[in-house]
Amino acid sequence: MRTHTETVGKIGGAPQAGNPDIGPVVIIANRKSGTNARDTAAITRARKVLEDAGAETEILYWKTVEDLGDLLKRPETARARTVLAAGGDGTAMAVASALVKAQMPQRPAMAVLPLGTFNYFARGLGLDEDPERAAAQLVAGTTRTVSIGTVNDRVFLNNASLGIYPDILKERESIYARWGRRRIMAHWSVVKTFLRFQRPLCVRITADGAVRDLRTPLIFVARSAYQLRIFGLSGEEAIHDDGFAVLAGRGQSRAQLFKLAWRLVTRNMREGRDYDLIRARELDVETTRRKSLLAFDGEKQRMPSPFRFRMAEGALDLRLPVQPTADPTTHTEGQAPQAADRNPACANGPVQPKANLKPKATPTI
Question: Bias regions of kind Polar residues — which residues (predicted)?
Fold first, then answer.
C-alpha cells in the first residue's frame, strides 16, 4: 500500500481526528472550472459528500495568483478549517503557495480534489481520482504538517526543471492554441522541440555544499516519489528523507534525446547510463545565462540564475486519506551502477574554479 511519503516526504506532528475537523470547507477552483460542465459536476458531487458528512462548504473561483491572495483574506476563508484545491497539479501548487505566504491568525489545512489531467500530487497522496471517493477519503482523513519544496522562494509540489522540458511546455502551449488540446499534439511538441535542440545547458550544481559542473539537456528536480516511480526513475529515498532527487540527463545530441524519450516512455531509463542522480536538501543551480526558463508543476516562468532550491519545513498542514488508494505502479529493478562525477569544460560558463565554490565533500550521486 502506498504511504503519504510518496509525495510529501517526512510527515510531522500527531494526526488530528478525522471527520469533525474538516469543516467548514472552502473549495477553491480555477474560474475555467465554473464554465466546464465536467468539473462543475465533479465539484457538485464532492461537495454533496462533504455536506452529507456535516461540513459546511463554500466555493470560490480564482483566475490569477493575486486572486488567491485576496480569496484567503475573505471572512469565509478565515473561519475555514480546510481549503480544498479543486483542480490539477497547477491549482494545487498555486493554492499551497498562497497558503504558505498567507498572513492568517489561524491557517486552514489544505486538501486536494483531483480534477486535472495527471494529478501527480493527489495520486501521490493516495487520493482516488473519482471526486466522490476522494471527498469521502478526505472526510475520514487526518491532518498532518508537511514540508514542501521551493525554488527562489516559489513553492512547487512535484518537480521543477531547467533545460529542454520547459521548452517543450512552451512549444506545447503554442501548438494547443493552434490545433487544440490533443494527445498527439503533445507528442508533436516534443518532436518539434527536439528537432530544434542546439546544445545542452552548461550548469554548476552545488548540492549540500558539494560542487560539480555539467553539460546536460535537462535538470529535473523531483519532490514526488510517486512520479519517479511511474517513470521507473531512481531517487525515491531522497524524497522520503525530505530532500530533492536531482536528475541530470546525459543526452548531448538530437538523436540521443529521442533515444532517452523512448526509454522514458518504455520505463527503461537507467541511472548512470541515461542520467546522473544527485541527492540534496539544499541545491543551487547556476546557469551561463542571466535568466532561464523554469518549469514547475506544469507552469513556467523566466527567472534569474542562480536557482536556489530549499525545503520549507513544516510549511503546510495537509489533509491526508487514512486509507490511500492502492498504488498501481511498481519499482524498477536492476538500476545501472552510479556513474563517476563528470566535469566537462563549458565555454563561457560558470566553470572556472572559485575559492568559495570548492566542494566540501564528494557529491552523492
Answer: 326-335
Contact 272, 298 (CB under 8 A): no
Residues 238 and 306 in one domain: yes
Query: Is residue 160 domain-shared with residue 305, that is, in the same domain?
Result: yes
In this structure, are residues 267 and 232 in contact, taking their beta carbons and an 8 Å threshold? yes
Residue 237 is given by DSSP the state H
Q: What single-letter DSSP state applies at residue 252?
A: -
* 320 contacts: CB under 8 Å, gap ≥ 6: 4, 11, 125, 126, 141, 142, 143, 144
Taking CA atoms, 102 is separated from 26, 68, 179, 219, in Å, by 15, 10, 39, 30
> What does the pLDDT look like over 201-235, one tens digit per residue?
899 999 999 999 999 999 999 999 999 999 999 99
Task: Tell me the pairing of strands 299-304 and 307-320.
Answer: unpaired
Separation CA 77–CA 84 (nearest Å): 11
Residues 118 and 164 in one domain: no
Among candidate residues 214, 300, 198, 310, the one with its CA nearest the CA of residue 257: 198
Q: In this structure, what DSSP letter does residue 80 have? A: -
Domain residues for the domain of 91 are: 25-140
Whole-model pTM: value is 0.79
**Residue 318 domain flag:** no
Distance CA 8, CA 242 (A): 8
Mean pLDDT of 315-336: 64
Domains identified in the chain, total number: 2
- Residue with the bigger pLDDT between 365 and 318: it is 318
Look-up of cell digits 511546455: 169
Residues in the chain: 365
Distance CA 106, CA 315 (A): 13
User: Quick one: the chain helix, strand, coil %, rounded to 5?
Assistant: 35, 30, 35
